[in-house]
Amino acid sequence: xxxxxxxxxxxxxxxxxxxxxxxxxxxxxxxxxxxxxxxxxxxxxxxxxxxxxxxxxxxxxxxxxxxxxxxxxxxxxx
Length: 78
Prior knowledge:
Blueprint: H1 2-5, H2 15-22, H3 37-51, H4 56-64
């Protein structure tokens, strides 16, 4: 995987584009969820913001925590 994805040259996209791309994925860990994966990311970030308003780095981590799942759309197993 490092050789294949390490250069980050498979596809160029913004974080928002990656979040939108995740909406195409049916997450094996939550197959019955009826809302988009991007909603989960925003919901997580907002929950962290409410609980820890002074830790902006933590809000960002909440938003980004599932972005690696985008690799499943390129043939990698979940």
